[in-house]
Amino acid sequence: MALEAMVSGGALRPGDPLDEGELTPAAVLVPLVERPGGLTVMLTRRTAHLAHHPGQISFPGGRLEPDDGGDSVVCALRETAEEVGLAAERVRVLGRLDDYVTGTGFLVSPVVGVIDPPFELHPDSFEVAEVFEVPLAFVLDQGNRQLQSREVRGRQRPFWALTWDDKLIWGATAGILVNLSDVLAPGDVG
């Protein structure tokens, strides 16, 4: 596998930390929406003026706050309500995926939840430029993912990337989608 060859050549695995410094706990919601044509995954595009990850595709989420009580589910639901205006009671939490360590020092806990339409969103225009959905079938198709690599601090850092329409989904968001795919379709993993 291409990833194993990269790792044996000194690359980090997607989601591995760059160093052993302290990580900032964070959580995201991986929202699955039940549509007549099948499940979709709701994503956001961050506004271009944000200090961290401007213009990137992401899940609703953010760092754990003291009021979250150290609970990643509480954090993911709170951040979703703040970013896209979806009330926590509209989300049926299914469980969690593997934690993901970002190159920027966050330990991200992905929480998977289902949202039943109809629902209204009220995106925070300061943080969210766009909310859109990608068919889950697209995410599950291994042919739609690409393993790419960049040098970061003198080491190769591989990351997953998917392109849906004109939207590049990469880094932690793509890594979490690959993990979701591996959990939902483990027999298809090569």
Give the CATH H-level superfamily.
Nucleoside Triphosphate Pyrophosphohydrolase
Number of domains: 1
Could you name the CATH topology? Nucleoside Triphosphate Pyrophosphohydrolase
Content-based structural category: alpha+beta
The CATH architecture designation is Alpha-Beta Complex
Shape: globular
* Assembly category: single chain
What would your notes on this structure say?
- There is one protein chain.
- By secondary structure, the protein is of the alpha+beta class.
- The protein has one domain (2-7, 24-134, 144-180): Nucleoside Triphosphate Pyrophosphohydrolase (Alpha-Beta Complex).
- 21% of the residues lie in helices and 39% in strands.
- The protein is built from 4 helices and 11 strands.
- The chain has helices at residues 2-8, 72-84, 136-140, 171-184; strands at residues 24-35, 38-46, 57-58, 61-63, 91-96, 100-101, 106-115, 128-135, 145-152, 155-164, 167-170.
- The strands form 2 sheets. Strands 1, 2, 3, 4, 5, 6, 7 and 8 form an 8-stranded mixed β-sheet that branches. A 3-stranded antiparallel β-sheet has the order 9-10-11.
- A hairpin with a 2-residue loop joins strand 1 (24-35) and strand 2 (38-46).
- The longest helix is centred in the C-terminal third of the chain and has 14 residues, at 171-184.
- The chain is globular and about 45 Å long.
- The relative contact order is 0.23.
- The model is unreliable at 5-11 (pLDDT under 50).
